[in-house]
Amino acid sequence: MNRFVALLAVALAAGVHYAPAQSADGKLRIIAFGAHPDDCELKASGVAALWAAQGHKVKFVSLTNGDIGHFEEAGAPLALRRKAEVETCARGLGIATEVMDIHDGELMPTLENRKMVARLIREWQADIVLFHRPYDYHADHRNVGVLVQDAAVLVAAAFFTPDTPPTKKNPVFLYYSDNFQKPYPFEPTLVVGIDEAAEKKWECIRAMPSQFADKNSWQGRTLPNVPEDAGQRQAYILEVLKKRNVDVADKYRERLVQLYGADKGRKFRYAEAFELCQYGSQPTLEELKKLFPTFR
Ligand SMILES: [Zn+2]
């Protein structure tokens, strides 16, 4: 088949099958992008575990290999260690995971990387895409935001990266929560109570000692008052991270009550929050709630 015929076949296939993007078995397909091998896990492993428990297909992608985020190790050995850690975490959550081989601290919003992100979304045939906002302290996080936003319309274009099939319709794109205020603060569209999946999230964090337990891990060195004892240190860092999920629930308590009703909404201890991106599909709040497991 020559290139023209192949492209035509892709275009016709896209036209014939234009329909709700959910796969034939009714299961959703979700892809989450993070800059480093811990970002998706910190921001979305609770909701990922809830989706996976219902048979939906979730994939985490780290766009860099995390090869400098440590004070004692670096390069290939650290990148391999971190890949193994997120793989352990993914097995526990019941999801897929992939780490791209780009150096930590060096992710750029290039055309090549835009195509890579578009291909990942198309190969996964994602209904939902989660990612960082482009307002963030870390350039890699910001560039994930730019790359996914720039891929948002292109994933449905038959002739962009035509070696992968376009998504059947434009996915829903949602940002992770963060606390940055400028130029725009995060505004939660959905706040998901994750208590039911919380243990799986903590187990995932425990599976990443290069991030959250080593004496010379990033958190081990940068958090205040970290204990010397190895066991105490891991427990202490986990408590700090748990507290962040408590803070999300408390900060957006009013939204939890709106979404779940007063009885349930007031009770959640832990939450993850997401803001609908203005690019991609624009479902109503009711349509959006149907895409998330806990609102049923
Ligand atoms: Zn990160």
UniProtKB/TrEMBL annotation:
Alphabetical keyword list: Signal
Xref: InterPro entries: GlcNAc_PI_deacetylase-related, LmbE-like_dom_sf
This protein's record includes keyword Signal: yes
Signal sequence annotation: 1-23
Any coiled-coil regions, as ranges: none
A single MF term (Gene Ontology): hydrolase activity, acting on carbon-nitrogen (but not peptide) bonds, in linear amides
UniProt cross-references to Pfam families, sorted A to Z: PIG-L
Gene3D superfamilies, alphabetized: LmbE-like
Keyword presence, Repressor: no
Protein name, UniProt field: LmbE family protein
Organism phylogeny: Bacteria, Pseudomonadati, Bacteroidota, Sphingobacteriia, Sphingobacteriales
